[in-house]
Amino acid sequence: MLSKKCKYAIHALVYLAERYEQGPVQIQDISEAQHIPKKFLEAILLELRHAKILESKKGKGGGYYLIRKPAEVNLMQVMRLIDGPIALLPCVSLNYYHSCDECKNEKICGIRDSLISVRDETLKILGNSTLAKIVKRERLINK
Predict the structure, then answer these.
(1) Over the stretch 21-30, which tens digit does the pLDDT of each residue have?
(2) At residue 66, what are phi and psi to the nearest 5 degrees?
(3) Is it the case that residue 142 has pLDDT exceeding 90?
(4) Is-above-0.85 flag for pTM?
(5) Are residues 97 and 62 in the same domain?
(6) Structural domain count, the chain
């Protein structure tokens, strides 16, 4: 399950992707439009900035903006950044692997084998779910 922080990060990124190359967007505007508490949003945007997905500009006309094209930012990247592992078990995680405490033999574990398939399909779907595709889909639905 996605954390509230991760959902807010995705909503903020989609909002910024809709305004890609239109200049910086103020935190207050994102907060109000996406119903995200401003203080919480500030921390999220800072984390996305450190990950080199966003940049910020100070002063008049300042705010946050995407520095990567919306087609280059996918849900897999955002979810890993904000929530960590995507895999359902630590023994199938690509980036956060560690063996399960209760597992006797990982090589013959049927549960692990099944969840590797789930992980692979999930990563494929999330990797193909870019901000650009999300924006395009939302525009089609809102017509």
Answers:
(1) 999 999 999 9
(2) -70, 135
(3) no
(4) yes
(5) no
(6) 2
